[in-house]
């Protein structure tokens, strides 16, 4: 199929490449002319564009524009601009990490003009070019069906992963190929958002576990209670046959091979929004999510020194017990 | 090799079978003569025994006895009895879920007589017979080396799982085959214990996420903010290419196929000790484990109705605000 | 001073009474004519009004209208209506539990017409009539100064509570009397909101503690490790000289006197918004608030039976271990 | 009455003084002769002793020895030694912060010789000399009754605190005076331990709240969403009439007067054991205590820099997303 990819960063660029490898014609655009040039030279059959107007002029109806930009204002501006350039029946896809409530507003606005909005949540990171991207998307059935060949090309496919038994015909066969039409506009990013909330929790579970293993050699313990354990080997052994095997564990095992002290990392951990939004959604639904909040708060605290809360604690201890902080 | 398997429940029975399939001669013993008879008929080359004394008499030195019993008193009693029956150079293996601090005492006691103690933490559950068991074990190097062929047979092996790149020669090659000599006695169960702590956290991460997805259709939300999402398809789509793919996710996907309301489950979730012990270990080491504790507490609360803490909350609300509980 | 009280429920009615006792003339209005009649008969010098228009006509400039309604739409509608009836220099006070971000919008709207908006967060519950109300408010200095006599009458005053030593002249002397001008519009409800977040955390701390004390007699413990403890006496003893003494503890002690099993409470605990908003604010600020979230989640869970998350946990346990739930 | 005070640190010294002011004769002993000399000169009617033997020789039967030492080995050794020096009917009181399970063992040992053991948990810190000590104690009824005059002198008494209404005759009148016989040996320290668990949770609730208030001026927020709030005034205003008023709040207000940035504190917060033990007890009882654990973990993290768990998180993020940590 023919489509445009707007935004050729690490994600958009690789997606354009993967699409061209699968025979799609991709019109390329990015704020950076260099990025366009680079992907244009790598993606067979791709076409360079110089502006959103140029992008639109190079497509044929129904025109499909995949926007792959960092979440936030720039995505909103781009979708709005596309709304002014496109016409009834055209399709705008937001493949970034937008807030699903923004999707609801954007879809509504575009619908006034008969333009379809599809929000695609994408997981797979830098590995997607080779492994394929796991995608959850929302939008009208009509739009979803129309862009199906694009999504199928981007997705990993069934591959060698063992199939779930007894999946009935009421279930969506696309799920087995790694992409899923979740529901109306906004639902794709919603599901991706929760995916990231789970990811935070899983990461924190491993992080806590490896910390307990590492600190089993801590000076705080009596000497005969200490074990000096090899974290790299432990991560490796769990990869085969254990209940905690996962792709995240594979990544841990890989990272630990080099130097299990992980000197290349400071441990200051950013968060990119989805974790927060998942907690917000959970609170709106009255659903307890203690693991997700604990995971987010660990990241907050990892990025600061001692905070005001901790000083307040020290102040109270001094107040009732005359406790002086340790030097 | 020749060894005895004491305890032929779901775990021990399957292990005896797997060992016999790999050509080992297994002396079988269980409190239940029926269990012995059943496994004896299935495990080629196995030998039935009628008592611990009989077990020991049927082995040749150095005698190897694998104890596979529920954690706790019965394991302790059996190990102690074996201590009285075995001699210098023999090996007692505890493959159950014993508390690692109990191992330290048991190993010390057996060492007085020159008997080796090996503690094996085993992950893999009911799938181990076919997939192999992931094992972490502690004990002397001498004992570990001697029983290596047994462990190799029980382990999954390298299989088709992609190998971690650049594993150096300072790392233990057995880890890639799914078994690992972690360190001295107790360290195997310690590592398995933390494994379970991680497992609790991962399970809770998925559980919270699927709950947020399910409740996105909650009556608490304004109607235009609700999505009716298909949890079975979402679990399935994440299995291919997403950051949250894992074996636990595979199991979720499988369970959800049948009826995504999960009517066959009440949601009262037991815990088997390791989660508690991991938290205890973390506290001894001054390591924060908020995700593990939240996971354990969710299980506690899942097994009761409204607890006293919640009544106290209601009592305070009534006290300061005259708040009457909703009917 | 002369002012109007709009909303004569448990809070507004008592405030009108307290103001009239302090010599203020209160114009009374409520949707319920009965409520107006009742308070009018109790509040000396008060004047009944029949509509917002009537309220406004009975005041003299600068007119002061205190709105004391449940948070949400009705407060917004009333403030908006008052905006159309009042003029430059008049003052609208929202004494309810409004969301502080709503205040920002309302204040801005009223400011276009030169009307002052003051948001008052009020703590003290049903006890305020006698003890006085602790109040935190936001708005212009001009408005805050003008309504000072009203707030001073509603506040508890210095009373017999020991004074904090060395409060310098840069601090606001009103704080010692139990009311405080926190900053611009919205800041009063913001501070009250955090107050409630703290309240949730403190309540949960007591609730957990009393639960641990009560369950020290649990069948789960070995018999020689159990204590049957008197929760009512323990709450009482802590009221004198302990680090955990507080007004909330006083309320616990009072509630426990009757029957320490608290049979009159089910333990299904509502939450009224401020706890959620505090967590939202904390997340916006990157501040970890694990205690506040745990407190809120306990309330969520107290209001449901076993939730979907817990069923997911059971489903996974069945998947990897064949674990059947206990009957 | 006549009794001995062993251990004349900040707590024991002040208790000896308070007892002498109430007319008791106190035999004084401490490892430090200077400490003995100092308290002897201040405590009217007190008697200096030079060893535990000397302590015992200076008392008359039934001899009462109050041990007021830091928890742990030294308390155990002292109680054991006293066990060898005392006789049937004598009373050993441990007023320190011992682990209640140690009490069980110590009481049992002393009981063999007919010596009573009383464990007293004490709250009140450096303020106890003037305000009196809140005490929870365990032991035989006989011993508890015998030492009642001592405890009554140490306790705050009813004072001016409003009395709880309708306390029935089945409740212990001593609770109103600030001391309580909780149950058998060990129960005093158990109740005090939970008291500290609650204290941790309350402290953390305030700490989080003040942090949210302080950071409302954070650069992370849009400028029109920031408030610069006065934490000292807010702490003060809550002291009068609010739901969160407490002694801990009084201490916060006092600490914040000086400099609300709290520059004298680093925010590295020790914990003294009781918080950990409360969590252990809760886990033994299957009681969820998320607030208490979150409070303890905040303290753990306050004492370290970025930990291994956080490095693991960064390593995973790098693995799946190529995310480089911020500089």
UniProtKB/TrEMBL annotation, chains A, B, C, D:
InterPro entries: 3-OH-isobutyrate_DH-rel_CS, 6-PGluconate_DH-like_C_sf, 6DGDH_YqeC, 6PGD_dom2, 6PGDH_C, 6PGDH_NADP-bd, NAD(P)-bd_dom_sf, Pgluconate_DH
Family of the protein in this entry: Belongs to the 6-phosphogluconate dehydrogenase family.
Molecular function terms from GO: NADP binding; phosphogluconate dehydrogenase (decarboxylating) activity
EC number: 1.1.1.343
Keywords associated with the record: Gluconate utilization, Oxidoreductase
Gene Ontology terms: biological process: D-gluconate metabolic process; organic acid catabolic process; pentose-phosphate shunt
Major enzyme class: oxidoreductase
Keyword Oxidoreductase attributed: yes
Signal sequence coordinates: none
Residue ranges constituting the 6-phosphogluconate dehydrogenase C-terminal domain according to the UniProt record: 188-324
Species of origin: Entomobacter blattae
A Pfam family of this chain: NAD_binding_2
Pathway the protein takes part in: Carbohydrate degradation; pentose phosphate pathway
Protein's UniProt name: 6-phosphogluconate dehydrogenase, NAD(+)-dependent, decarboxylating
């Amino acid at each position: 199929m023919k489509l445009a990819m707007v935004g050729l960063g690490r994600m958009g660029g690789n997606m354009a490449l993967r699409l061209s490898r699968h025979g799609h014609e991709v019109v390329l655009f990015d704020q950076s002319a260099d990025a366009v040039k680079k992907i244009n030279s790598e993606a067979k059959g791709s076409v360079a564009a110089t502006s959103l107007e140029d992008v639109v002029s190079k497509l044929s109806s129904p025109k499909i524009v995949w926007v792959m930009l960092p979440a936030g204002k720039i995505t909103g501006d781009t979708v709005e601009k596309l709304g002014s350039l496109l016409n009834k029946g055209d399709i705008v896809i937001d493949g970034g990490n937008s807030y699903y409530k923004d999707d609801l507003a954007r879809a509504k606005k575009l619908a006034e003009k008969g333009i379809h909005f599809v929000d695609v949540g994408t997981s797979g990171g830098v590995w997607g070019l080779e492994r394929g991207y796991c995608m959850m998307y929302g939008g009208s059935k009509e739009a979803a069906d129309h862009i199906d060949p694009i999504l199928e090309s981007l997705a990993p496919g069934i591959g060698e992963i063992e199939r779930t038994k007894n999946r009935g015909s009421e279930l969506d066969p696309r799920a087995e190929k790694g992409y899923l039409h979740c529901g109306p506009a906004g639902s794709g990013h919603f599901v991706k958002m929760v995916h990231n909330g789970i990811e935070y929790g899983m990461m924190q579970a491993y992080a806590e576990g490896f910390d307990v293993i590492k600190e089993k050699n801590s000076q705080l313990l009596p000497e005969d209670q200490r074990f000096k354990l090899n974290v790299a080997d432990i991560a490796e052994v769990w990869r085969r046959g254990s209940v905690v095997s996962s792709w995240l564990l594979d990544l841990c095992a890989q990272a630990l091979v080099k130097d299990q002290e992980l000197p290349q990392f400071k441990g200051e951990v950013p968060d990119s929004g989805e974790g927060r939004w998942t907690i917000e959604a959970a609170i709106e639904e009255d659903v307890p999510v203690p693991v997700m909040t604990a995971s987010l708060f660990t990241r907050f605290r990892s990025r600061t020194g001692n905070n005001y809360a901790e000083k307040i604690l020290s102040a109270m201890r001094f107040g009732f017990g005359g406790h002086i902080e340790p030097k």
